[in-house]
Amino acid sequence: MQAYNKSELENYFLAEEAKKLFQKKFLSKAQLQIVSAQLAQLKSNSNIFFRIGFFLLGNFLLSSVISAISVILLQLITEQYQIMFFFYAIVAYIGLEVLVRMKFFRHGLDDAFLLSAQISLLIGIGILTEAFLPVLITMLVLGVFFAIRFINTISALLAFIGLVGIFFNVIVEHDVMPKFYLSFVGLLLAIIVYFFVVHLSKNQNYYPYFKTFDTLRVASLLLGYLSMNYLVVRELSESLMNLTITNTSDVPFAIVFYVLTFLIPLLYFFLGIKWKDKLVLYSGLLTLAFGFYSIRHYYYFFPIEYVMVISGILLFGLAYLIIQQLKNKTEGVTFQPDRDSDNSLLLNTQAVLSLANATTPAPTQSNPMEFGGGGFSGGGAGEQF
Amino acid sequence: MEKSHFSEILLQKLHQKEFLNENDLEEIVIYQKKGIFSLRSELLLMIYFSVILFTSGIGVIVYNNIDSIGHLAILSANFILMLVCFYFSFKKAKGYANDEVVFENPLYDYLVLTGSLLACIFLGYINFQYQIFDESYAYVSLISALLCFFVAYYFDNRIVLSLAITSLAAFIGISISPKSIFQNEIYSSLQLTYSGLVLGIGLLVWMEHSLKTKIKAHFHFVYATFALHLLGVCIMAGLLSEHWFVFIPILIGFVYFFYKFSYRVLATSLFAFMLLYGYFGVNILIGKFLFYIDFGFFHQLVIMVSPFYVIASIYFFIRLVKQFNAEKNASVQ
């Protein structure tokens, strides 16, 4: 089923592991060089910038190939434009297989062809059937196929979205059960997927898929939270069940959702620390922030600037307390730098992050804003590293 | 269900292939047993965000209350808080040195940051209220920049350094942050493009100087990143303007310099973005060229040829990246 040669894949992952060992200073640079020299390598980009760059180039390539072919072909087919997307998908898939033969793996180029193949086929099916359900089912099946055959994480994510979408679609449009159960189905689905993936990752032989498993775990954690989040539940029930919520009425079982909006993030926090799993911990942070946002969305306590000041102080206090607790521990959960920690990297990241945050006013503006405070939507920050 | 740092099976395989000897394995086992789960970066990032949240909030409060009775109270509170921050920072600081100096407790870095942000708010505020420099914010930006540069060099703080550079950019009239670049705000006029070029080159000159004289040489990455993006965007803007031919030699110089520089410091992100801007620039030029010559069947020809062009450029990039990675891997750290 796998598209790649088994020993080559193994070599790739061994080299990756060796890199990790080098970062944690168990291997010397000389040893690492021996490892990467002796193991025949697949062509891959471990650096995210290069991978994104080649992904873009791959898309250019695909679209230029398609447009070149279309110039000739379009004169032949004028009526059946539905075929076009299937045709794109086939071209992309052939390109993908060729790239795989040329030993491209997690390189960026292969990612471009892989995603284009899936998305074009989905669009094609969407146009052909004019319904959601077939698209979602194809999404699931294709995603699983691509994720297994090409060891691709994004395909697995697409499959996950497809799976969730199927349930959503069946319940909302085909009335299999009352819409009210939607959020519980979501939670159940998240739990099932999470433990299924955990079960799979216990098998060490699946090591090529470990990254995929991790991503799926985070996705199901987020799904589990979102299906219990008060904001999501309320908005969905307003739009799907035509509930009108006034001061006196609320969604059914509102108290459950209120409690879970904060309980689940805390649970993730706790589990993240207990299992020593950063992904679960980060999910906890993310969901907690969203939890506060959802409550603020409906209840107005203070103006936003006071919220910022107060939450800044609270956040600082919390972090400070944790640091004081962990300061002198050298084992287990600790504030000490790990063997691979790179202080310079962290400082550079923050320096560049603060570039993204700084809304320095140009003199032409008559806006007496502070220098370097301002909005903190650091979305673009990731581009820098 | 504790998550281990390394995969057992891969370690075994590495051992079988004799890349790892018994001692290495033992060391790894001892390390894994400790179950180290370092939250250092996460906690420091949390502190960083708390500082940003706090100072942003203060900034907005000050701004909203400019005409109210309490402004003097706010102003003095801001000032006192700033003094407190700097007082403790100075007390704990080891003093200036050309090399890297770190606080024993990393939290002081953030205290310095808070102080600097509050100082910038304070300066902007008194200028607005008492109109020291008329309505113009240029001089306030300059003073903020100078202050931040001093603080950044004295306390060896990269975050404040980047504040200083943004303030300096604001002084010459451009708002450069990734956000504004993406919103296309940067090139509102050609004059700004030229001043951006001057600032970018100035930053590079200063960076080269400090690398040579070893004055805080580790700041080079912040300077280089900043200059790279500033110059890159300015050159793109220039190439799209009327005087595009002026920018061709600048583009060539830009690519050449950052090519050499990224090899020198082996910084992948600089290399990648140099390639990106360079490729964009070349494509803009090719587009201009195609626009000038025009003949029959031309468009179809271009479309037919374009896959080969893209393949050629992919081949070219793969070779460049390979070379760079080989150089990086061969370097002994």
List the helices and strands and how they pair.
The complex is a heterodimer of chains A (385) and B (333).
Chain A: H1 6-23, H2 29-38, H3 48-73, H4 83-101, H5 109-129, H6 132-150, H7 153-174, H8 182-201, H9 210-226, H10 230-240, H11 254-274, H12 278-298, H13 304-326, E1 333-334, H14 343-357
Chain B: H1 8-16, H2 22-34, E1 37-38, H3 40-64, H4 71-92, H5 107-130, H6 138-155, H7 158-171, H8 178-182, H9 190-213, H10 220-240, H11 247-265, H12 268-292, H13 298-330
Helix pairs in contact in B: 3-5, 4-5, 5-6, 6-7, 9-10, 10-11, 10-12, 11-12
Keywords:
heterodimer, A: 385 residues, 1% strand, B: 333 residues, mainly alpha, 4 domains, 13 helices, 76% helix, flat, transmembrane (chain B), DUF2157 domain-containing protein (chain B), membrane (chain B), DUF2157 (chain B), transmembrane helix (chain B)
Kindly describe this structure.
- Chain B: It comes from Flavobacterium tibetense.
- Chain B: Residues 14-160 form the DUF2157 domain.
- The complex is a heterodimer of chains A (385) and B (333).
- With 385 residues, chain A is an all-alpha fold.
- Among the domains of chain A are: 182-300, no CATH class; 305-336; 341-361 and 371-376, no CATH class.
- Helix content of chain A is 68%, strand content 1%.
- Chain A contains 14 helices and one strand; from the N terminus they run αααααααααααααβα.
- Chain A has helices at 6-23, 29-38, 48-73, 83-101, 109-129, 132-150, 153-174, 182-201, 210-226, 230-240, 254-274, 278-298, 304-326, 343-357, and one strand at 333-334.
- The longest helix of chain A is centred in the N-terminal third of the chain and has 26 residues, at 48-73.
- Chain B has 333 residues and is mainly alpha-helical.
- Chain B has four domains: 1-37, no CATH class; 47-171, no CATH class; 193-293, no CATH class; 297-326.
- Helix content of chain B is 76%, strand content 1%.
- Chain B has helices at 8-16, 22-34, 40-64, 71-92, 107-130, 138-155, 158-171, 178-182, 190-213, 220-240, 247-265, 268-292, 298-330; one strand at 37-38.
- The mean pLDDT of chain B is 84.
- Chain B is built from 13 helices and one strand, in the order ααβααααααααααα.
- Chain B is flat and about 70 Å long.
- β1 of chain A pairs parallel with β1 (37-38) of chain B, so a sheet runs across the interface.
